[in-house]
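Researcher: We're teaching a course module on how sequence relates to structure. For the next exercise, students receive a sequence and then see the predicted structure as tokens, so they can try to spot secondary structure elements on their own. Here is the exercise chain.
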Amino acid sequence: MQPETLARQNIDTQLHEAGWIVQDRTAINLYASRGVAVREFPLSNGYADYLLFVDHNAVGVVEAKAEGTPLSIVKEQAGFYSTGLPENIPHVSLPLPFLYESTGVETFFSDQRDPEPRSRHVFSFHRPETLAEWLSQPDTLRNRLCLIPERFHLITTNLW
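Model: And here is the predicted structure for the students to work with:
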């Protein structure tokens, strides 16, 4: 079995455990569940390994790589795919806000709506309900943290 095939099997299992229905692109049914992950979705700039739909709208991509691939170098590829959605596909925004890079053993996540988006390690894929909740909020947590008045910032000098 090819290493990337094994990674995709692990990713399928992890997505399913997080509440996603995983489908092939030849049998898409966006009404099958609140969260649908479509394998090998055709884009204007290539194929997303997985395109994530929440409430019938595209919200993110998963870029799958073989175990051992440094995921820090894959973020740009996931970001590239997040911009290539065909016009007739319903989506929340372009670029798509949620990016995952995964080997099936480790997974990185970034929210492109953050002030300085960066990938960070997560223990599992987020549930569709979680992504829907984040999309319903007017701002991301990191954006809200940037708005904390200076008088509430942590004191970092003269502590000893």
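Model: If you want an answer key for the exercise: The CA atoms of residues 41 and 47 lie 5 Å apart. DSSP finds four helices and seven strands in the chain.
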